[in-house]
Specification:
binds nicotinamide-adenine-dinucleotide; Epimerase_deHydtase; binds 2-acetamido-2-deoxy-beta-D-glucopyranose; L-threonine 3-dehydrogenase activity; about 240 residues; Rossmann fold; mainly alpha; disordered C terminus; three-stranded parallel beta sheet; NAD(P)-bd_dom_sf; globular
């Protein structure tokens, strides 16, 4: 979904997608796609040099379901992978974007509202690794001048793909099972420890962030997304 927007803006052949897994056919047809293992540092350098890469958007990760079964592999992919992209970006003067999560807080952080800068002492390995990523990016910026950008994503609901494996994705799947008024309580149950309200005033004033979807539109979109199953259940 993101590549589609970037290609519209920068040209089809100026955006190269990569993964260690084969994508569906329509992804191949939409522009360049190559194999790249985030753990293979030399190969990352090769790709950057051979294609004159100037921006790197880093999304590789091993999701929880797989990660729980193999914690050390998840740590490699998530954390060594992060170190590799920081190094390759610094070495070759790339601009680097890495997503964090709205879960990068913890029981000691203020939740209502939740400011950009506050104490962050989360208690899951995923969230701890994201705080590590935020701080490493800042460190590389101060130490080496790396152009590092980061956003704390909420659960991504995409028109292009099925939900992956995060907490927020699960409530979309759960809504196959529940009627509309119950979806909301599932959502709050799962996200109970997360911030309640974000103070987004810096984003609004610094880079013109504004939302297109309020809560009613979000719920309606989710219902539309799961629409056919939802109606089927009600008919039964
Ligand atoms: N999806 C969300 O709601 C959400 C919310 C907050 C943050 N994020 C962050 O966004 C990023 C991407 O999440 P996603 O939901 O797109 O995950 P995803 O699982 O859909 O994508 C991760 C990709 O990484 C690939 N990968 C695994 N091992 C690799 C390796 N060794 N080398 C290269 N690629 C490898 C996987 O094949 C997969 O396609 C993650 O950092 C995640 O923490 C996502
Ligand atoms: C790795 O990242 C994925 C999603 O980005 C997360 O679900 C998983 O818990 C993480 N594992 C570790 C060990 O950081
Ligand atoms: C949901 O679907 C209905 C009926 O197809 C449509 O009119 C409406 O615009 C959709 N709403 C959203 C937020 O996508």
């Amino acid at each position: 979904g993101l590549a589609k927007l970037l290609r519209k803006q920068f040209g089809k052949y100026n955006v190269i997608l990569s993964d260690i897994r084969k994508p569906p056919a329509h992804v191949y047809q939409s522009g360049p796609f190559i194999f790249s293992d985030i753990l293979d540092y030399k190969n990352l350098c090769e790709i950057v040099v051979n294609n004159r890469i100037s921006w790197l958007i880093h999304y590789s990760a091993l999701l929880s379901a797989v990660g729980e079964a193999n914690v050390s592999l998840a740590r490699d992919v998530n954390i060594t992978g992060l170190h590799n992209v920081l190094d390759v970006a610094t070495e070759h003067g790339l601009r680097l974007f890495i997503p964090s999560t709205i879960g990068a807080f913890g029981p000691m952080s203020p939740r209502n509202p939740n400011p950009d800068l506050c104490i962050q002492r989360p208690r899951t390995i995923y969230e701890v690794s994201k705080v590590h990523a935020e701080l490493m990016g800042e460190y590389y910026h101060h130490r080496y001048g790396l152009d590092f950008r980061c956003l704390r994503y909420p659960g991504i609901i995409s028109a292009d793909s099925q939900p992956g494996g995060g907490t927020t994705a699960e409530y979309v799947i759960l809504s196959h099972l529940y009627l509309s008024f119950q979806i909301v309580s599932v959502l709050f149950l799962v996200a109970d420890s997360w911030p309640m309200v974000f103070d987004d005033s810096n984003a609004r004033s610094d880079w013109g962030w504004k939302h297109n979807y309020g809560l009613p539109e979000l719920i309606q979109t989710m219902l539309n997304f799961t629409g056919s199953n939802f109606r089927m259940l009600r008919a039964n």
